[in-house]
Design a protein that fits this description.
Blueprint (H helix, E strand, L loop, with lengths): L10 E6 L2 E5 L3 E4 H4 E4 L10 E4 L3 E4 L18 E3 L4 E3 L9 E2 L4 E3 L4 E5 L5 H7 L3 H6 L4 E2 L6 E2 L1 H5 L2 E4 L2 H46 L7 E3 L7 E3 L3 E4 L4 E4 L11 E4 L3 E4 L17 E3 L4 E3 L9 E3 L4 E3 L4 E5 L7 H8 L2 H10 L12 H4 L3 E4 L2 H44 L6 H6 L29
């Protein structure tokens, strides 16, 4: 059905700077006449909301990675009803967000309630389309990192307005097509997850038992590690690392991400959809060879020895090797993210609940590190590379297929909501109750640096 889509029979010029033409049966209307601004305040007992690019506007309690601090100023926050649209300060980077829950949010945000001519199923897709997101750069104020949406200007801009029946058909078609694509993506992601587990098993054995099956073993004295080759050494982390706290002056260094899957990598190489901070001045710096630990997610393996210079969250810990220490980066990286070590880091982390556990420096420095001779560390890393080569190749192929499916989904949504292809016939053939299967893969998703957008201080 997707492959057989065709353009509309006739088109008309729009005079919009970001959309040259649209179907001849569509009209256009200023945004302020399609949506009513909601400015209600004085609901301090409603749940706090957060605007995210991945999940839309959701309750903050759905994300337990940040502690919600009580405030006497909650009555100043704006009310959001389920089905409203929220324009956050950085909406031009990721589109306008649909609210999936009732609650309160920063008064700096603009809350829009759809009018009778605006069908949520259509505009929730339209506001996330690539063409519309690019158009939002026309309505920002400020320079570079300080740019924010100017709703006064945006409210006067014209929006495409398909007939109501077309909006409904488009929404149903995109529910169906996105559901099929999401299902295919999730299926491939699960295979990637299993392959990652297979690769991790190879790493776990190599970094804790070595690659010489004939090596004599000795009790390590570490219950969660067991026996190790008798010629290996054991040292506590405090004899290998020391903590450093160097800060960026202007935030101009490369922004790095720390995750439980890829360790320390440039954020530019990752598909992270969270809003960027207004400024990164004062953020921590790290250098190649530094061990960076995402304090809040260390128990999930969000740490790694960096090969990059750059900036990271000021909440992270940076540990630098002592001058007399020499080890293979990939070995230490694999060891600290192996299952036995992650299990022990979980035990050493403290907090009220699992998603708020933190690994503090005093506990990290007590961590025993098993160290083979340097030359053996090199051989272990080389062996892991050889044994993992086939798995890595399969993972790379699947990830490329996932990327192509995601690109297809993005392109399809953009083409449909801007009228480049006609889905009225296809949408009419679908059952009225067709609902896309939710893309609910969060438990297996990579943990990014930030889960929620920073709230504006009251």
């Amino acid at each position: 059905m997707i492959a057989g889509l065709k353009p509309y029979p006739k088109y008309q010029d729009t005079d919009l700077p970001w959309l040259d033409s649209m179907p001849s049966n569509w009209s256009k209307r200023r945004m302020k006449f399609l949506f009513r601004e909601r400015v209600q305040k004085g609901f301090p007992h409603e749940p706090l909301l957060a605007a995210t690019q991945r999940k839309g506007v959701v309750r903050k309690s759905d994300y337990e990675s940040r502690t919600v601090t009580a405030s006497k100023d909650f009555h100043l926050l704006k009310l959001v009803e389920t089905g409203d649209f929220v324009i956050s300060l950085r909406s031009f980077e990721g589109g306008i967000e649909l609210a999936h829950a009732r609650g309160i949010i920063s008064p700096a945000y603009t809350i829009l309630c759809p009018g009778p001519d605006a069908v949520r199923a259509f505009y929730s897709r339209f506001f996330k389309s690539a063409d519309f997101i690019r158009s939002l750069t026309l309505f920002v104020t400020g320079i570079r990192e300080g740019q924010n949406i100017d709703y006064e200007r945006l409210s006067r801009a014209y929006m495409p307005l398909p007939p109501a029946e077309d909006q409904i058909a488009i929404g149903r078609f995109l529910d169906w097509s996105s559901g099929r694509l999401d299902k295919a993506i999730r299926s491939k992601q699960r295979v990637v997850m299993l392959l990652n587990e297979q690769r991790q098993t190879i790493i776990n054995h190599a970094v804790t038992r070595g690659i010489d099956a004939s090596a004599r073993l000795k009790p390590s004295g570490i219950p969660w590690v067991g026996d190790i080759p008798e010629h290996w050494d054991i040292r506590r982390a405090k004899y290998i690392f020391h903590e450093v706290d160097e800060r960026s002056l202007d935030g101009g260094e490369e922004l790095l991400s720390v995750s439980h899957i890829t360790g320390v990598t440039p954020r530019s190489q990752k598909n992270i959809t969270m809003f960027k901070a207004a400024s990164y001045s004062g953020h921590k710096l790290c250098q190649p060879g530094d061990l960076v630990v995402n304090t809040m997610w260390a128990w999930m393996g969000a740490l790694g020895v960096s090969t990059y210079s750059g900036i990271i969250s000021p909440a992270y810990a940076v540990y630098r090797p002592h001058q007399n220490q020499r080890f293979v980066r990939e070995y230490i990286d694999g060891l600290l993210r192996s299952r036995p070590y992650i299990s022990n880091i979980l035990c050493r982390s403290t907090g009220v609940r699992s998603s708020r556990l933190r690994m503090y420096p005093e506990e990290f420095f007590r961590l025993p590190i098993i160290l083979p001779p340097f030359s053996e560390q090199q051989r272990i890393v080389e062996s892991i590379g050889v044994k993992s080569a086939g798995v890595n190749k399969s993972i790379a192929r699947l990830e490329r297929e996932i990327e192509l499916l995601q690109e297809l989904k993005t392109s399809l949504v953009n083409d449909v909501v801007t009228g480049k292809v006609d889905v009225r016939g296809a949408g009419a053939q679908l059952p009225k109750d067709v609902i896309a299967e939710a893309a609910n893969f969060d438990a297996d998703q990579e943990i990014d640096d930030e889960t929620l957008e920073e709230e504006v201080s009251l």
